[in-house]
Amino acid sequence: DAKTTQPPSMDCAEGRAANLPCNHSTISGNEYVYWYRQIHSQGPQYIIHGLKNNETNEMASLIITEDRKSSTLILPHATLRDTAVYYCIVWYTGNQFYFGTGTSLTVIP
Amino acid sequence: GAGVSQSPRYKVAKRGQDVALRCDPISGHVSLFWYQQALGQGPEFLTYFQNEAQLDKSGLPSDRFFAERPEGSVSTLKIQRTQQEDSAVYLCASSLLGISEQYFGPGTRLTVT
Predict the structure, then answer these.
(1) d(CA B44, CA B59)
(2) CB distance B67 to B60 below 8 Å
(3) What DSSP designation does A81 have?
(4) pLDDT of B26 higher than 70
């Protein structure tokens, strides 16, 4: 069952930051927030995950609000290759990994 | 290095036929997952292995679906008496242990006619 809400689609200009929001107002204290993306006709690709603190890696940054009810994935300098469906998932041990329908991000030249 | 591979990449089956889909995970990865992805939808969990043990099969849609990983490496997803509603992309993923960072294969697109 869906525990996250994401906009169905977003556009972003090439070279600009892409900010993808995710609402997870019913998240419990031990549930992690995961982000994956899926480029057309490929399998999903792990991006980043976090629990309470903001996280950054070579691909993206994850900003989680203090109340943990929402988060934002930031791609700092979007390129055309970042065009994909982005999935926000909340998960804890024993639960199924539920992808939902994600946000379709289109990076525009 | 080699990623997760799946074969065949495409499979067309007549309704009622049995199919077997293969997944070769990344060497050394303990956990293996199968997902089903219908057109326009996100992947949906089917089943999970840790080594050869099938720890969760709650996502398998019917008893026509069966998965195995007998030696804790290669896995096979078998669908018996295929139906049109089984048409989907079947994705396999592996991870070092547990959910944390799953590496996905390219998927097998199954079309049941």
Answers:
(1) 8
(2) yes
(3) G
(4) yes
- Cβ–Cβ below 8 Å for B107 and A99: no
> Is A91 near chain B, with CB under 8 Å?
yes
Reported as a single tens digit per residue, the pLDDT across B58-92 is 999 999 999 999 999 999 999 999 999 999 999 99
Q: Which chain B residue has its CA at the smallest distance from A93's CA?
A: B99
Does B13 have pLDDT greater than 80? yes
Residues in chain B: 113
Query: What does the DSSP assignment read for B48-98?
Result: EEETTEEEE-TT--STTEEEE-TTSS-EEEEESS--GGG-EEEEEEEESSS
- The single-letter DSSP state of residue A71 is E
CB B17, CB B32: distance < 8 Å: no
Q: Do the beta carbons of residue B75 and residue B5 sit within 8 Å? A: no
pLDDT below 50 — which residues of chain A? none
Instruction: List Cα–Cα distances, B1 to A46, B6, B27, B64, B72, in angstroms.
Output: 17, 16, 10, 35, 20
According to DSSP, the residues that pair with B104 across neighbouring strands are B93
Of the listed ranges A29-33, A91-95, B16-20, B40-44, the one predicted with least confidence: A91-95
Nearest C-alpha neighbor of A24 from the set A106, A98, A105: A98
